[in-house]
Amino acid sequence: MTWTAPEVTRPSGDTAADERILLPSLLTWHRSTFLHKLSGLTGEQLATASVPPSNMTLLGLVRHLAKVERFWFRLRYAAQDIEPLYDPALGKDHDFEVLDAAKAEEAYDILLEEIRLADEAAAEGSLDDTFDLGGTPFSLRMLYLHMIGEYARHNGHADLIRERVDGHTGA
């Protein structure tokens, strides 16, 4: 049986909350928007590069976003003693380049788990908490803003790719 990305309901969220609630809520909305853009597609469709000359795919974006969730929240912010999701020796774009459609469900599940673990890592943190990023302090507040931007940018990519894969547009 061919796996198909499940339907996703996006949360509405509070638009006037304190920033400790607002920033994670907005990130959650962007994450669910990305997952929504995958809904109903098969692994083969997720692995399709559809916007020449780019080789970017939805599956590559799934793998990339799982990598950045782990990197920023767990490796950097929480300083967890874990390995990167993909071996850095394989190249910085390895997450985009390995596109086995048969492993799309696994990649999707890894993204969901990395999101869960990222939220867990930051749940009790103060937005003023910092970690060292190349000799510069980087706050949890800035991390949320960075990840919101990361997802917003890739949601735009996902829109274009999805439209070329099956004609679906919007939201």
Please describe what this structure looks like.
The chain contains six helices and two strands. With 171 residues, it is mainly α.
CATH top level label: Mainly Alpha
The major beta sheet can be summarized as:
2 strands, antiparallel
Helical content, roughly? 40-55%
Order the strands across the largest sheet as they lie in space.
1-2
Approximately how much beta-strand content do the residues carry? under 5%
The CATH topology corresponds to Four Helix Bundle (Hemerythrin (Met), subunit A)
| Distance separating the two termini | 28 Å
How many DSSP H or I helices?
A: 6
| Radius of gyration of CA atoms, rounded to a whole number | 16 Å
Tell me the number of structural domains.
1
Following the backbone from N to C, one meets helices and strands in this order, namely HHHHHEEH
Strand element count: 2
CATH superfamily: dinb family like domain
CATH architectural label: Up-down Bundle
Uncertain spans, ≥5 residues at pLDDT below 50? none
Name the shape in a single word.
globular
Whole-number mean pLDDT: 94
SSE-based structural type: mainly alpha
